[in-house]
Description:
Structural class: mainly alpha
Number of helices: 9
Number of domains: 2
Strand content: under 5%
Number of strands: 0
CATH architecture of the largest domain: Orthogonal Bundle
CATH superfamily of the largest domain: Tetracycline Repressor, domain 2
Helix content: over 70%
Amino acid sequence: MTVSKTKAKLVDVARQLFAKMGVENTTMNDIALASKKGRRTLYTYFKSKDEIYLAVVESELDILSDMMKRVAEKNISPDEKLLELIYTRLDAVKEVVYRNGTLRANFFRDIWRVEKVRKKFDAKEIQFFKTVLLEGQAKGVFHIDDVEMTADLIHYCVKGIEVPYIRGHIGAHLDEDTRNRYVSNIVFGALHRTEI
């Protein structure tokens, strides 16, 4: 097994154990046994359980980044693409947090630790927003004074509602059409979208 495959297997096994037993209740020995690798192999790749936890978070963010990239590359109008990027981002993060069971508590408790790992993802996300905004501006869909600043603002707005969205505090009582109308009004009003 190659180095990257071994490391990926260790991360995947750790993710499953963290989700099932909780990060605190999972030991490095548990990960070594479940992955059928020795403790020496595990410690070759990760110095601590904290390091492997952050690798689990990073692997989930890589998957989300790939999902957003596929949306950004779709052959749809920039305004549809922008909304789909926002929804893909929020729904995927919500799904990751819930799928990982007991990781959910760690995600909220360790948000600042998770933030360190998210820097690379955040930069990619801002670039996706920027690309779609530039496309929209080139096609005359959006009228934006500063694309860079607008991409940053969209990123931080979406990031800011992430936790309330995951916890069901935002729009949970709305049907999909009403929710979409609210989001569209806010996003497109700020971007001065033209009707096409």
